[in-house]
Amino acid sequence: MNAARSRARLLDEAPRAVTAGVELLTESLLAQAVPVTSVDWRPPWPGTEASLMRVMADPRRSAANDRAVERMLASTAELVDVRPAHAALGLEPGRFLHAGPPLTWDEASGPMRGALIGAILFEGLSDSPSEAERMLADGRGITLEPCHHHGAVGPMAGVLSPSMWVFELRDEANDATAWCSLNEGLGKVLRYGAYSPEVIERLHWMSDVLGPVLHAAVRAHGRLDIKGIVAQMVQMGDEGHNRNRAGTLMLLRELLPHLVAGTAASSQTADVARFIAGNDHFFLNLVMPAAKLQTSAAADIPGSTVVTTMARNGTEFGIQVSGTGQQWFTAPAETPAGLYLAGYGPEDANPDIGDSAITETMGLGGFAMAAAPAIVRFVGGSVPDALSTSRLMYEITLAENPAYAFPILDFRGAPTGIDVTRVARTGILPQINTGMAGRVAGTGQVGAGLVKPPQACFTAALSALADLAAPPA
Fold first, then answer.
1. Position 54 in a domain
2. In sequence order, what are the residues at sequence separation of 6 or more whose Cβ sits closer than 8 angstroms to the Cβ of residue 447?
3. Mind listing the pLDDT tens digit for each residue in 93-119?
4. Is the predicted pLDDT of residue 451 greater than 90, yes or no?
5. Any idea which of 22-31, 234-243, 309-318, 334-343 has the lowest mean pLDDT?
6. Which residues span the domain enclosing 133?
7. In this structure, is residue 272 part of a structural domain?
């Protein structure tokens, strides 16, 4: 008995081993009853070592990132108006905004082409899809620009035209404004590249009825705290990208009394209430500009390595970084993997598309799947996957946002401030959950799934940051 106690005491007092990234060694030590602390360490991406050293040695980096995070956490997001894009953004006839980094018609994917064709039909610039396509191909009176260049965001193809109505949000803490289109619902909709007559008819209803009725309701309500609703929805099972059911219903609860008390015909009021209540994704188009306000608050800080934009145009994935201003770092977009609607499969899916990855840039969406485990039924994977993914995202971010707390993680705040150096050092890429558009123009939605940015976006950003790095003090 005494010998057994002595042996146990010796084991307790024996040195503990620490292993880093070598699973075989960890398993071998555990098999010998040696206490082991395993550290999940990975070497940086090959070829990034010199750039990493220069960026890490930049004496501005720490203070710059602290400032970026401080501004992001302080950002507010209030819905102040709903109005036409020509009034809000100064869009003129023939000028269209789109999701992701810049592109030309020749580079545009099927869903982007379909959405642009539909926008031309909606604006009355052409009577036929074939004529609209010819206009876009030869550029007659047509201008294409990214939504992000105008402080706006758009889901999927993200096409905004002058007659479309937009949500207008304000961040008073950082004196900024952001805009986003109104959400059409799922299936065959413009943002997924569909442009059939029923799609155009719905867009006209949204312009003629939905927009004006919401404008009146928001004006009657007064400023609406979108950040507050997002904070609540995250604790009610939404993650802000592909699950927005609680957020949509909380928005409707706020606006419904003012809808009913408004001057619109009762039939129109009922149609608007029915449309919002039946569209679980309606609130996505408010989360996105709230995210744009938060991430843009960190922009243009010399020496900062914080990612301020992740966006896709269906051809390329692009990121922007605080310390490099408005420069885009792009690479070919990956195709999501996930679940497909009946009749569709992987061969039908277009590469990743949309500005909605701004929700992940904010710390929600794929970063917040732990708060919304039911999302796996929509995008694939499992509940343990959702939990581990959210935990992993803390490895590549600089802070936690207490405004968006995850109950399942003991109310830990959303991982906030993607750091290019941490991505390169760990090899962990941001996780995005997303809808999938059909590869062929006019198809619409074919599924939903998970995707990650191309590594090349981050290595290019790291190299640019290294070129701009200040010498060590």
1. no
2. 336, 338, 339, 340, 341, 344, 349, 435, 436
3. 999 999 999 999 999 999 999 999 999
4. yes
5. 22-31
6. 78-289
7. yes
